[in-house]
């Protein structure tokens, strides 16, 4: 079953990317040009487009074009609000030096004694920390099996428990509705073995 699902997902992705071939003029589309359909050419075209876009944006002219485009968007009332918000969220989540979605936490939610998995999204809450007069962190509690929706809570740091599992392991556990649980004991054993090897190598 996992192999079959993987095959179907890959086939769906390849089929979707093959639709990018429709961007080409009819005379230059592979199906018309070669006379046969070759699956996967859309993937190649998508890769070329991504690389070309990256090269254009990386140079001085590309940066000017991007700045001009963002300046245009900032003048459109509704688009300005949505674009700026989405851009800020993506920059915070994808930043390599950021704390967003780098730690898996255990929080008491939705009631005392009931525990939920959560992801730390920020520890710099400014006004919230000032008004609460405590060290508060922002956490995201995803729903299952769809982790893209959920709840944002601001909790005192002492009220959360940081777990050793990775974000990927946490997402697997949430998506599987708690069925796929990381083998914590095995990981602890591997860590102990690695620590024992270090003194021997020194």
UniProtKB/TrEMBL annotation:
InterPro entries: COV1-like. The chain crosses the membrane at residues 7-24, 36-61. Pfam families: DUF502. The keyword Transmembrane helix applies. Keywords: Membrane, Transmembrane, Transmembrane helix. PANTHER family: COV-LIKE PROTEIN 1 (PTHR31876), PROTEIN LIKE COV 2 (PTHR31876:SF26). This is Transporter. It comes from Methylophaga aminisulfidivorans MP. The lineage of its organism: Bacteria, Pseudomonadati, Pseudomonadota, Gammaproteobacteria, Thiotrichales.
